[in-house]
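User: I'm new to structure prediction. If I give you an amino acid sequence, what do you actually give back? Let's try with this one:
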Amino acid sequence: MKSCNVYENGDMRKVTGDTLRPGGFLLTDKAIKVCNFKQKDKILDIGCGIGETVNRLNKVYNYDSFGIDPSEKLLELGKSKYENIKISQGKGEELSFEESFFSGVFAECTMSLMDDWKKVVLEAERVLKSEGFFIISDVYARRPEYVDELQESNINSCMRGLLNIEKLKNFALNSGFEMVYFEECTELLKSLMVKIIFKYGSMSRFWGIATCSTSSSCGNFQQILSLCRPGYFLMILRKK
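Assistant: Good question. You get back a string of structure tokens that encode the predicted 3D arrangement of the chain. For your 240 residues, that looks like this:
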């Protein structure tokens, strides 16, 4: 059976809401307090989905917000839900913005979906102004020695791309950033998993429904995923 993108599946939004991530706007709002952006600052959301964060940054905080996402389906949903929203098709590895354009860049549960997260870090550094902020919230492997096995799966979810957090930190710090804030947020991920299991009976069954995959492939994916011990984090970097 052909696999499909879990984020384009309505079952995912049933458990996460339209933000498509653990905790909804909780970490978004926390990051905004840390960064202390000014009104009308230009802010980019990489992997914006239907534009929930982009809309919030604009309507609640009065920022000049932009979003990119590779999914034409999600972008169409966003444009039909919100008027005059600045969301367009694009990839985090190839941002179509000029250098030093943004005061902040968000990547909320999307770095783990990228083909090359290192390119995303470099692109974020390029489009940020000096002392601009790169905000990352995402999943990571607390036992990264099993990550390579996980990435061989055809399950198209951020869980397949669990980050190695030490590699991410070191690469970012060697690419023009300094660490401003870090928080372990795994309880948010655990709460989401409990909600999924309560609704669908098991994580394996959820993966099968959300990704159009066979029960055997989903069971194997969940087994390897458990070995990785998924965690969740908020990291805020500042361009030097």
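You can read the tokens as a compact description of the fold. Here is one thing that stands out. The radius of gyration is 17 Å.
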